[in-house]
Amino acid sequence: MDSFSVVLVFLSVAGFLLALYATLIFHRLIPAKQIPGFGWCLPDKKTCDIVFHHPDSGLLGVFNGIPAMAYYLLICLTLAGVPIILLPWMVIALAAIAVCVTIFLVYSLFARVKTSCIICMISHVVNILLSVGFIVHGK
């Protein structure tokens, strides 16, 4: 695996962990400040509750963190060379879909929900970097 692929795997793992953290908070399995150093939700403003339980935080009743974890896992497995049926153009198509969803969610966060979300913004940056990486890398 070349060094660029390692960077993409690192981004995918980071994205997976962020999506997992958001999903655990969404389902109230952990409080927002349980992980030391990662208390990114403002409990006094209930930022995570507002963002994660807004109607735009999911599609067809599924919280966005769940398909995001599947996406990041697929990307990691593909880059690691695990034999799954995911052609290079499919990876780029998934990345393009992720960017479209990211654009909508950023719009929703600022125009509809009208709050900030550090977890969300870092996830959006990860999605954009992964997409640019796939285009540059050609995987």
Any overview of this molecule?
The protein is mainly alpha-helical. The chain has a single domain, classed as VKOR domain (de novo design (two linked rop proteins)), CATH 1.20.1440.130. 65% of the residues lie in helices and 3% in strands. It has five helices and two strands, in the order ααββααα. The protein has helices at residues 3-26, 47-52, 65-79, 88-113, 118-137; strands at residues 58-59, 62-63. The protein has a two-stranded antiparallel ribbon with strand order 1-2. The longest helix is centred in the C-terminal third of the chain and has 26 residues, at 88-113. The radius of gyration is 15 Å and the shape is globular. 30% of the residues are buried. The model has no long low-confidence stretch (mean pLDDT 81).
* CATH architectural designation: Up-down Bundle
Mean pLDDT: 81
Q: What's the CATH class, please?
A: Mainly Alpha
CATH superfamily, called what?
Answer: VKOR domain
Number of strands: 2
CATH topology: de novo design (two linked rop proteins)
**Uncertain stretches:** none
Sheet-strand content, in percent, reads: under 5%
